[in-house]
Design brief:
Length: 487
């Protein structure tokens, strides 16, 4: 059924770049689709499911491999995929068909070893080999699938149990580029386990013992046949000797008769019978003798060949026994190594438990440290917010300080101006002091001392310390201005 599905595509000459067109793919499923396919809807999964609907809905007898569940699992990835226009023949989609085979450890008796299932995979690989010559993606997928052991086992089973067409296809697949023939030609068995080699030698010894038993049975049959022929030969020789004695006795009787003439008619009548009996006996004895001699010779040659083959088989058996002993010794060494490795594994498990306990403790400590770090981070965030607030306050204070500095500079300028004024006032005071001194000198000389003193006291100046009192009044004023500026 599957071969009929892919037959139109395999028989179509595909040009470079046009095998993915919907028209070409539609020809593949056109013979199985009973309905008229409308433009644009034949690529849906429901339509593809109709292709395999007769196979999935077939009533299968008990024990057959064609359970609908088994076949449905093969095509489930393809049927459950949302297929876009022109992309369902990509290698990723077809690779999903082989996914159950690659993900399953194939054992003897599974459904993958049935001839129909192997034929399905062989036809799929044959299709991919045809598509690999037109696209590099198909070539990579094809060569990658042939590298898997499960696919190689399926090909081996198909080559062993398949039909003539399947065997031809498998042999064709093994001769393609993607098949790893170099790995099978190279005697590299490093990746094979010792148990598999021992099992192979056990099968080989069993087959050799079976062939030895078969040769022994054939040798015994040949011996019995040769003894039977020897018995028959002895019987024939005894019969020949008895007939010769009978002929000799009759000849003596004929010679001893005195009146021979009267017995001439009877002797002449008996002579042809006697001659015929003698000729038949001699021919029969000679034929039987030659026949039995040839058979005996052939049996002896066969016995010699069988003994030679038995000796060669015994030599091979001894060699295989030696190899088996060596393999057993190597197996014992491997067992010891396995035991040592198992002990080391136990020690490593103990170390692993200790390390896991330490790791759990370290994880607890780490969680505590993380909590502390989180708390510190929260504190740092709070401090950052406080720092941001303080920085804003500092900026405001710096602005205020700059303003105060400017105000202080202006006040200093004013103070300097006031100092200059004070100096000018002091100069004036000094002049007034000199004038006062000069006037005091004239008061002694003139008589109007009382009137001038009264007039001078009315203006607010004393006679003893008018300049000092004026300085005392002006200086506290300047000091008060300076103190007000710094406040």
């Amino acid at each position: 059924v599957v071969q009929k599905v892919f037959q139109p595509l395999l028989c179509t000459k595909v040009k470079s770049g046009d095998w993915l067109f919907p028209q070409v793919v539609q020809k593949v499923f056109q013979p199985l689709l009973c309905t008229k396919v409308k433009s644009g809807d034949w690529l849906f999964p429901q339509v593809v499911q109709k292709v395999f609907q007769p196979l999935l809905c077939t009533k299968v007898k008990s024990g057959d491999w064609l359970f609908p569940q088994v076949v449905q699992k093969v095509f489930q990835p393809l049927l459950c995929t949302e297929v876009k226009s022109g992309d369902w023949l990509f290698p990723q989609v077809v690779q999903k068909v082989f996914q159950p085979l690659l993900c399953t450890e194939v054992k003897s008796g599974d459904n993958f070893f049935q001839s129909e299932v192997t034929a399905l995979y062989v036809h799929s690989l044959d299709l991919m080999s045809d598509l690999a010559s037109h696209d590099a993606q198909w070539l990579n997928l094809y060569s990658g699938l042939l590298q898997h052991k499960q696919v190689q086992m399926v090909l081996a089973v198909a080559l062993y149990t398949g039909s003539e067409i399947i065997k031809k296809k498998v042999l064709f697949l093994t001769s393609t580029v993607g098949f790893p023939s170099e790995r099978y030609a190279a005697p590299n068995i490093s990746d094979i386990s010792t148990s598999a080699v021992m099992e192979l030698y056990e099968y080989k010894l069993a087959s050799m013992s079976h062939s030895e038993r078969a040769l022994q049975s054939s040798l015994e049959a040949a011996n019995t046949h040769s003894t039977h022929l020897q018995h028959r030969l002895a019987q024939l020789t005894a019969e020949i000797s008895r007939r010769q004695q009978l002929l000799f006795h009759t000849q003596q009787c004929l010679e001893g008769v005195p009146s021979y003439d009267r017995y001439i008619p009877s002797v002449s009548e008996l002579r042809p019978q006697i001659c015929s009996v003698l000729s038949s006996a001699s021919s029969f004895s000679s034929q039987n003798f030659l026949l039995y001699f040839n058979e005996d010779k052939n049996k002896q040659m066969l016995i010699g060949n069988l003994t030679a083959t038995i000796e060669s088989l015994r030599k091979n058996l001894d060699e295989n026994k030696e190899e088996l002993m060596e393999s057993q010794q190597s197996n014992e060494e491997l067992k010891k190594k396995n035991e040592d490795a198992f002990k080391e594994l136990k020690i490593l498990e103990m170390h692993n438990k200790e390390s896991t306990s330490k790791i759990s403790e370290l994880n607890k400590m780490l969680s505590k440290m993380e909590d502390r770090i989180n708390k510190r981070e929260r504190v740092i965030q709070e401090k950052d917010t406080e720092i941001s607030k303080l920085s804003k306050n500092i900026e405001a204070f710096t602005a205020e300080v700059s303003n105060l500095n400017m105000f202080a500079k202006s006040q200093e300028r004013r103070l300097n101006e006031k100092d200059a004024e004070l100096n000018s006032v002091r100069v004036k005071l000094n002049e007034l002091q000199r004038m006062r001194d000069f006037r005091t000198c004239h008061t002694h000389s003139h008589s109007r001392d009382g009137t001038e003193k009264a007039a001078f006291s009315c203006h607010g100046y004393s006679s003893d310390g008018d300049a000092n009192s004026l300085g005392v009044d002006l200086l506290p004023r300047v000091e008060r201005k300076r103190a007000g500026k710094y406040r």
